[in-house]
TrEMBL record:
It comes from the Archaea. GO terms for molecular function: ATP binding; ATP hydrolysis activity; transmembrane transporter activity. This is ABC transporter-related protein. Pfam families: ABC_tran. Keywords: ATP-binding, Nucleotide-binding, Transport. PROSITE patterns: ABC_TRANSPORTER_1, ABC_TRANSPORTER_2. It comes from Natronococcus jeotgali DSM 18795.
């Protein structure tokens, strides 16, 4: 184990935090465009989140609702360690993501957080199995074990007859199930899902949702959606408006 790795593990297993509150955001504010990352000169800094505090308990599925632009994806990206907020802290299993180095944060994301996107984000040139196995390549798992684990996960999401198919040969619902299997590859503690049924028809979306909730109950899950059916299966819905929490239905 490297020193860096040990540092992450130690922070992540601080007594009293693990298990009780897998995810906690404290006074998180995020402004895009304040670090020179503006997409064009005409663009101004945008305050996407303002003093957001939010906690997710073990086994809890929390829905994030709010109109487009209210900050849902920004929260998910902060929890997934894909961005570091301008202010505030984000802890996942006791590790403060905002205090980690980029490498530590990337490592924590790869090992402990599963991410499901609206548009699947599968690599088109890789088979379903190779897509699912990809996080395990990054985690250094030997090839034989990767293949076994990916096959097991694809069976679990009902795709045992699609293992060798490319994403382009799969339906939207099948692609999302591959993406869910990929999110589970490293057996993460936390799942974040950004409008996971947004591209799917109602019946397919319902099946994907059943699968996600079954998985989320065993971990902790944060799911962004403006779909009533998705929000109905959550334990609690947090409502956002203009980057602020306006209700937290605990
Ligand atoms: P939602 O997921 O609820 O639609 P987002 O979190 O994507 O909301 O966006 C919140 C706000 O931040 C919006 O005003 C959006 O335009 C802005 N925003 C999102 N991503 C970026 C970015 N990369 N650069 C600048 N502004 C952004
Ligand atoms: Mg979004």
């Amino acid at each position: 184990m490297t020193t860096r790795n040990r540092a992450v593990r130690t922070a992540a297993t601080r007594p009293g935090e693990r298990g009780s509150t897998p995810v906690r955001l404290s006074s998180v504010t995020h402004r895009y465009g304040t670090d020179g990352g503006l997409r064009s000169r005409s663009e101004r800094a945008v305050t996407a989140l303002e003093e957001v505090s939010l906690a997710i308990g073990a086994g809890e599925i929390v829905g994030l609702e709010g109109p487009s632009g209210s900050g849902k994806s920004t929260i998910l990206h902060a929890v997934a360690g894909l961005l570091v907020p301008t202010a505030g802290t984000v802890t996942v299993e006791g590790a403060d993501l905002t205090a980690l180095s980029d490498r530590e944060r990337t490592r924590l994301r790869r090992e402990r957080i599963g991410i499901v996107f609206q548009r699947f984000h599968l690599l088109p040139s890789l088979s379903a199995r190779a897509n699912v196995a990809l996080p395990l390549v990054q985690a250094g798992v030997p090839k034989k074990r990767r293949r076994e684990r990916a096959t097991t996960l694809l069976e679990r999401v009902g795709l045992d007859d699609r293992i060798g198919h490319l994403p382009g040969e799969l339906s939207g619902g099948e692609r999302q199930r591959v993406a869910i299997a990929r999110a589970l590859a490293t057996d993460p503690d936390v799942i974040v899902a950004d409008e996971p049924t947004g591209e799917l028809d109602t019946a397919t979306g319902r099946r994907v949702l059943e699968l996600l909730t079954e998985i989320g109950r065993k971990r902790a899950m944060l799911v962004a959606s403006h779909d009533a059916e998705t929000l109905a299966v959550t334990d609690r819905a947090v409502e956002l408006r203009d980057g602020r929490v306006v209700s937290d239905g605990r």
